[in-house]
Amino acid sequence: RIVVVGSLNADLTIYCERLPLPGETVHGNGFAVNPGGKSANQAVAASLLGGSVSLVGAVGADANGDMLLSSAARAGVDISGVRTSATEATGVAVIAVDSNGENNIIISAGANGTLSPSDVAAAAETFDGAAVVCLCLEVGRDTVEAAARAGHDAGATVLLNLSPYAEIPQQLADLTDVLLVNAHEASLFLGSAGNPGSAAIPGSDADASDWEAVRLRFAERGLQRVLVTLGAHGSVVLDSLAPAGQQLIQIAPVRVNAVDTTGAGDAFTGAVAARLAAGAPLADAAAFASVAAALATTRKGTQAAYPDENDVRRVLTS
Ligand code: ADP
């Protein structure tokens, strides 16, 4: 089983020609309410890709909460660990998207802010026998740490998506088996306190020695296995626990006609969780996730755009 602990948000998206400046009002040309939140997205992606997924989180007693629960349940996610807060509304992300696809996002945590280590303790039975525990930083650090500890103690692989980026205590790094970052988060992490040296993440013309240096920098922080996603440039597997010569694997991009990259990183994370839970080696999981995330960009929306296992297999075998 995969246990995902974290956020559920209603994405309130308004489309406009250009984003408003401070104090300015602009006219929008469309509005949509969709299920979102990194953890809910990751849970849905993992479930559609064949994982048996339990989501631990919190929503409010409102229509947005109902929408999130039914979207996750429809994808096959076990939502019995999602608590309904008596006091807080469901978390929302208010998103403005301009005609170039550039966006502004404001998140109100709402019920996500009430998720606490006691919710992790209440889900103790769910952690029993879990293969993967999947975490991100959209809920409180103490909750993330408690879930990482519970996963570690249960013998699960702890997969941490360091997003939205924040510094993490060494304790959490030590509990992390696989770190998943995009290029931006990777450079923020390597540039943060305690990591002297260059924060630059190699560009698309990088060679293996550039990535070797990055692998060593992560390993110095106790992060032995790291996946770096590079958008349209694919991804990189840094595995300091692999035999020499197999510690760096560059995964070629999957060429698609991307129309909406929102939630691509979450599709990638959910896919990695699903494949690791199925016993796949890290590099295989990343290759599978590259296809799943690429397919997710070919349709508008987030959870509704996610592929299932057959969609991915079709690309892998073509
Ligand atoms: P995030 O969405 O977190 O910013 P990335 O932009 O790195 O993360 O995208 C995550 C993954 O989604 C990539 O590693 C890749 O597999 C896939 N992806 C994103 N954009 C594209 C694209 N334009 N073409 C193909 N795959 C993409």
UniProtKB/TrEMBL annotation:
Instruction: Report the protein's function.
Output: Catalyzes the phosphorylation of ribose at O-5 in a reaction requiring ATP and magnesium. The resulting D-ribose-5-phosphate can then be used either for sythesis of nucleotides, histidine, and tryptophan, or as a component of the pentose phosphate pathway.
Localization per record: Cytoplasm
PROSITE patterns linked: PFKB_KINASES_2
Entry cofactors: Mg(2+)
- Name by which UniProt lists this protein: Ribokinase
Q: Name one Pfam family in it.
A: PfkB
Cofactor binding note of this UniProt entry: Requires a divalent cation, most likely magnesium in vivo, as an electrophilic catalyst to aid phosphoryl group transfer. It is the chelate of the metal and the nucleotide that is the actual substrate.
**Domain (Carbohydrate kinase PfkB) ranges:** 1-307
- Subunit structure as annotated in this protein's UniProt entry: Homodimer.
Q: Where, in this chain's numbering, is ATP bound?
A: N182, T229, L230, G231, A232, H233, G234, G265, D266
Pathway membership, UniProt: Carbohydrate metabolism; D-ribose degradation; D-ribose 5-phosphate from beta-D-ribopyranose: step 2/2
Q: Which family does it belong to?
A: Belongs to the carbohydrate kinase pfkB family. Belongs to the carbohydrate kinase PfkB family. Ribokinase subfamily.
Residues engaged in binding K(+): D260, T262, A296, R299, G301
Q: Which residues form the active site?
A: D266 (proton acceptor)
